[in-house]
């Protein structure tokens, strides 16, 4: 019932897929030939300027080179740096027929639910009709080209192929069904995992997850969301570690292959040069929220919380130096929020009785954080594709700044009250305490960005 | 810059250096040769990612041969490739290795039976004898095959007949396959226990197999590493176990092995039916008189050679199946006939099975077996209680997980990553909640559970209303008997992993046999009973 967290491919299914796509490719080639549709071969040459954006063919060449390299490495038994996607492995062996097919279609990489609703990007519906004679010709041609590969195929594959080309669907009770001992129990464990997460029985769910990840072949990348949730219920600090583990082990900077039909949206399973993997963003958000709460929480050791927060900021500042985080507005936004939280805490700790250079240093710190927040938000909006309440944040920042100058005269007042007043005046609509404001904001943002 | 790292021999122009350092981001040997294909670059450099070069800054690890794990040197590539080639073996050698692997598995199985099920030491020897007999027959087959091939060669030159050629090719192909699998090992175990008169039946073997106790599934992983590397993938797949014995495969294997090993001539091949009947009676919470009834029925209607292993592959001649058929018929006939002592409510009480929380290992194994045999395991899983889930999970931890192999072929970095992940999710019984671990510890013995079951049945029977009972008509009785029979049949089908049709066929056959013999022997009495039954 639930999808198994591992890839089941047998030689049979692989060959049947290969045959299917080979046939489809043959047909479409012939069809294009008859109708005089050029099939991308005669496209305009790539202009010099965009040479850095590697063209499709080049990319394929590179993939091939990379694959050869990887193969050589696996032969000598030496390490390849990452736990490279196992998912790609079977697809690669399809002799590219499937990839050739999928190359023609755009597959969104962020999700699988991208709808083209921009009226300018509409393409006309294809109205070309084809007569029966011509269709027969195309079919015959397609079949003729298939003869050799069909001759070596097994009987089941042949049956499958002939049935599908005639437009029938073959009911294969064993196809995709977990029927071996191993798969059956993995299936049971998976359903138990989902059921227990659903029932919020974290102990049982934890055990399922712990068992599952110990079974070879089971891919953690398809389960990390559940695992994180379960761990967060049991040991909150550990779940951050897990996410960190995910992003350190599975992040790659290789571009996604356009022509691979991924089972899951690839951003959920791995990153690329252009996409930040989801577990990394989840990790950053979780860190930000936890650590920010830690700063507010008086019971916790404020020193370690501050250290944690500082380390998070350091990490992000390193991350944004390179792709893919460099171009990800979400990461920039998180970075900006970090500075904002920092500005908030520093401005709260600001002692208006200070004088001289100590005062200057303290206020400069706050100002600098505010400036950083603004510049990072600038970065974030310049990348596009990410919306956030700009005016609200601006007001908050102004409030932080006001704490530095606003109450010079009233240094007799209690500090608590002092902050309350400050916070109330700009953010009157929300009427929230400044302590909560940031986290509230972050929460709402988090839900927005998801 | 004196930070040298030990690594592979440089080899450029016979350079003997093993020491490497990094100059300008390139790995350079002691004498200044730059390592090929190893460039360190900045992350900002976009093109470099596309060049497919592996960067390494941290975790410079060296392999067993002293190579850097993360990089490779094209000058050393060739040697490694040569080493790699020709690891798998094919043809007759592979078959020999496959047989050796089977033997290895068989040995582990018999050792498990002796250690865990306290079988006598002689069991091991007997298994060995049967296995040797089997090997001998295989050898004979092989020899015949060779002669046959020579003949084929001669006849083929003179005779160009295509059909004949195909026929011969097919026959040769058949001969090349030994038709052995892991099920054959189970068959050998069963045959040995028959010879020794040990009350182990196919259902026991299947239960232990499917619950992962008896070494069966994934036995390819437990083979010596060198064997596993050499074995072709096809045989590895066979040794993986797949689904386990299905639809009476075990019985057909037994029958086939009987012919091959001349089991009938040289061994005790009479199956001890009393014990199986006793087992069936107990596991279905029937009163002990049913045991006597069944034995009586068998004794009066069977002949001496009825319960002997035979090389017949038809379902009606499988011994264990015959016995279960007798058992089912006994229940049906007795319940039909004796309306006085077995009232309808008694049968109804029998149908109700208790859902017990404390169960013995035996029952857990049984449940696992049932789970593995059902077509839709997820549906069952949804109805489980927490205790059942905990039971299943602890089973998975103690029996299923050990079957999994720690993948030795993982690269070192992957292994480190994996270890870290496992550390994040430790799997200790103390991390699990305490109530279930108590359940885990206080597993009652099978005997206690059996007593509980009988007590439950008694309670169930006495709690039913007497007066309502009398209004129930005869129709109701037949319905109750049928549903009880269906229940038992379903359980037997999974326990013996046969199909329903096979069991039905066996029942039909046995009932015919019973009628036939009863007619012969008990001419006067039998008329009334059959009339009742029909």
From TrEMBL, chain A:
List the biased-composition ranges (Polar residues): 437-450
What GO annotations for molecular function exist for this entry? RNA polymerase I core promoter sequence-specific DNA binding; RNA polymerase I general transcription initiation factor activity; TBP-class protein binding
Single GO biological process annotation from the record: nucleolar large rRNA transcription by RNA polymerase I
Q: Which GO terms describe its cellular component?
A: RNA polymerase I core factor complex
Q: Name one Pfam family in it.
A: Rrn11
Compositional bias ranges of the Acidic residues kind:
412-421
**Biased composition annotated in UniProt, kind: Low complexity:** 45-54
Segments of this protein annotated with the region Disordered: 35-65, 412-450
Q: What is this protein called?
A: RNA polymerase I-specific transcription initiation factor RRN11
UniProtKB/TrEMBL annotation, chain B:
Supply one GO molecular-function term: zinc ion binding
Query: Which superkingdom is the protein from?
Result: Eukaryota
The UniProt entry's GO biological process terms, in alphabetical order, are:
nucleolar large rRNA transcription by RNA polymerase I
Cell compartments where the protein resides: Nucleus, Nucleolus
Compositionally skewed regions (Acidic residues) per UniProt: 142-160
Sorted keywords for this record are: DNA-binding, Membrane, Metal-binding, Nucleus, Transcription, Transcription regulation, Transmembrane, Transmembrane helix, Zinc, Zinc-finger
Q: Which residues form the Rrn7/TAF1B C-terminal cyclin domain?
A: 259-400
Q: Name one GO cellular component term.
A: RNA polymerase I core factor complex
Q: Which Pfam family is one of those matched by this entry? A: Zn_ribbon_RRN7
The primary site where this protein sits is nucleus
Which residues span the membrane? 180-201
Segment Disordered: which positions? 142-163
Residue ranges constituting the Rrn7/TAF1B N-terminal cyclin domain according to the UniProt record? 102-224
Q: Report if keyword Repressor is assigned.
A: no
Q: Which family does it belong to?
A: Belongs to the RRN7/TAF1B family.
- What is the recorded name of this protein? Uncharacterized protein
Organism for this UniProt entry: Zygosaccharomyces rouxii
Q: What is the lineage of its organism?
A: Eukaryota, Fungi, Dikarya, Ascomycota, Saccharomycotina
């Amino acid at each position: 019932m639930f999808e198994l967290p591992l890839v089941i491919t047998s030689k049979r299914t692989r060959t049947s897929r290969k045959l299917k796509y080979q046939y489809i490719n043959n047909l479409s080639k012939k069809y294009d030939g008859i109708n005089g549709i050029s099939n991308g071969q005669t496209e305009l040459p790539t202009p010099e300027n965009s040479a850095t954006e590697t063209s499709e063919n080049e990319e394929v060449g590179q993939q091939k080179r990379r694959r050869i390299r990887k193969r050589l490495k696996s032969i000598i038994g030496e390490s390849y740096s990452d736990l490279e996607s196992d998912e790609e492995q079977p697809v690669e062996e399809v002799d590219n027929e499937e990839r050739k097919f999928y190359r023609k279609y755009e597959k969104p990489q962020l999700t699988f639910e991208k709808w083209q609703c921009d009226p300018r990007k509409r393409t006309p519906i294809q109205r070309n009709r084809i007569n029966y004679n011509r269709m027969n010709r195309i079919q015959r041609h397609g079949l003729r080209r298939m003869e050799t590969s069909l001759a070596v195929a097994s009987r089941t594959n042949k049956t499958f192929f002939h049935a599908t080309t005639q437009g029938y669907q073959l009911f294969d009770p064993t196809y995709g069904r977990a029927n071996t001992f191993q798969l059956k129990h993995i299936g049971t464990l998976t359903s138990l995992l989902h059921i227990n997460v659903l029932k919020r029985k974290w102990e049982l769910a934890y055990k399922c997850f712990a068992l599952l990840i110990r079974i070879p072949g089971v891919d953690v990348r398809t389960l990390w969301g559940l695992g994180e949730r379960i761990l967060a219920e049991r040991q909150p600090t550990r779940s951050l570690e897990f996410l960190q583990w995910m992003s350190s082990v599975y992040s790659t900077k290789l571009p996604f292959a356009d022509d691979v039909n991924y089972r899951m949206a690839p951003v959920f399973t791995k990153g690329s040069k252009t996409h930040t993997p989801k577990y990394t963003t989840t990790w950053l958000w979780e860190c930000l929220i936890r650590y920010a709460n830690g700063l507010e929480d008086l019971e916790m050791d404020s020193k370690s919380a501050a250290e944690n927060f500082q380390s998070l900021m350091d990490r992000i500042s390193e991350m944004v130096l390179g792709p893919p985080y460099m171009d990800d507005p979400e990461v920039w936004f998180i970075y900006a929020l970090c500075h904002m939280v920092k500005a908030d805490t520093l401005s709260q700790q600001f002692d208006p009785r200070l004088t001289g250079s100590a005062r200057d240093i303290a206020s400069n710190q706050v100002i600098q954080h505010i400036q950083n927040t603004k510049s990072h938000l600038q970065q974030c909006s310049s990348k596009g594709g990410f919306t956030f309440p700009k005016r609200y944040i601006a007001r908050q920042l102004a409030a932080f700044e006001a704490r530095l100058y606003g109450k010079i005269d009233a240094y007799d007042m209690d500090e608590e009250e002092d902050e309350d007043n400050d916070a109330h005046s700009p953010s009157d609509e929300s009427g929230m305490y400044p302590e909560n404001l940031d986290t509230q904001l972050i929460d709402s943002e988090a839900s927005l960005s998801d | 810059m004196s930070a040298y790292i030990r690594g592979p021999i440089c080899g450029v122009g016979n350079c003997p250096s093993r020491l490497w350092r990094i100059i300008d981001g390139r790995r350079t040997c002691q004498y200044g040769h730059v390592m090929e294909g190893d460039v360190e670059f900045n992350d900002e450099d976009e093109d470099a990612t596309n060049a497919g070069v592996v960067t390494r800054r941290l975790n410079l690890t060296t392999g067993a041969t002293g190579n850097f794990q993360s990089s490779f040197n094209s000058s050393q590539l060739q040697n490694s490739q040569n080493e790699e080639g020709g690891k798998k073996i094919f043809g007759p050698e592979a078959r020999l290795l496959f047989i050796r692997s089977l033997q290895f598995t068989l040995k582990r199985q018999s050792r498990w039976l002796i250690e865990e099920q306290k079988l006598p030491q002689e069991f091991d020897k007997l298994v060995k004898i049967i296995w040797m007999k089997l090997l001998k027959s295989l050898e004979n087959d092989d020899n015949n095959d060779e002669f046959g091939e020579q003949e084929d060669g001669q006849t083929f030159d003179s005779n160009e007949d295509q059909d004949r050629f195909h026929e011969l090719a097919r026959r040769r192909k058949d001969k090349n396959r030994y038709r052995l699998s892991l099920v054959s090992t189970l068959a050998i175990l069963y045959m040995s226990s028959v010879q020794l008169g040990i009350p182990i039946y196919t259902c026991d073997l299947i239960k232990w197999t499917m619950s992962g106790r008896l070494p069966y599934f994934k036995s390819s992983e437990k083979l010596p590493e060198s064997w596993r590397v050499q074995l072709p993938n096809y045989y590895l797949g066979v040794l993986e176990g797949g689904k386990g014995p299905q639809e009476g495969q075990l019985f057909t294997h037994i029958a086939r092995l009987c012919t091959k090993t001349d089991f009938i001539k040289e061994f005790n091949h009479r199956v001890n039916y009393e014990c199986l009947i006793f087992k069936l009676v107990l596991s279905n919470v029937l009163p002990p008189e049913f045991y006597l009834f069944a034995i009586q029925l068998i004794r009066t209607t069977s002949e001496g050679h009825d319960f002997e292993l035979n090389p017949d592959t038809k379902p009606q001649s499988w011994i264990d199946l015959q016995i279960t058929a007798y058992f089912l018929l006994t229940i049906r006939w007795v319940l039909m006939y004796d309306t006085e002592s077995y009232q309808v409510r008694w049968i109804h009480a029998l149908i109700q099975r208790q859902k017990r929380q404390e169960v013995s290992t035996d029952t857990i194994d049984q449940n696992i077996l049932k789970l593995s045999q059902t077509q839709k395991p997820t549906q069952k899983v949804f109805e489980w209680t927490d205790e059942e889930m905990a039971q299943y999970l602890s089973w998975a931890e103690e029996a299923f997980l050990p079957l999994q192999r720690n993948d030795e072929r993982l690269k070192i970095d992957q292994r480190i990553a994996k270890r870290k992940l496992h550390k994040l999710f430790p799997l200790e019984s103390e991390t699990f909640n305490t109530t279930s671990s108590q359940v885990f510890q206080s597993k009652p013995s099978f005997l206690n559970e059996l007593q509980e079951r009988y007590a439950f049945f008694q309670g169930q029977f006495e709690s039913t209303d007497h007066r309502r009972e009398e209004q129930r008509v005869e129709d109701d009785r037949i319905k109750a008997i049928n549903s009880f029979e269906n229940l038992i049949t379903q359980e037997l089908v999974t326990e013996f992993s046969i199909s329903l049709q096979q069991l039905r066929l066996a029942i039909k056959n046995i009932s015919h046999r019973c009628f036939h013999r009863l007619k012969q022997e008990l001419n006067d009495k039998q008329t009334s009973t059959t009339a009742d039954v029909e």
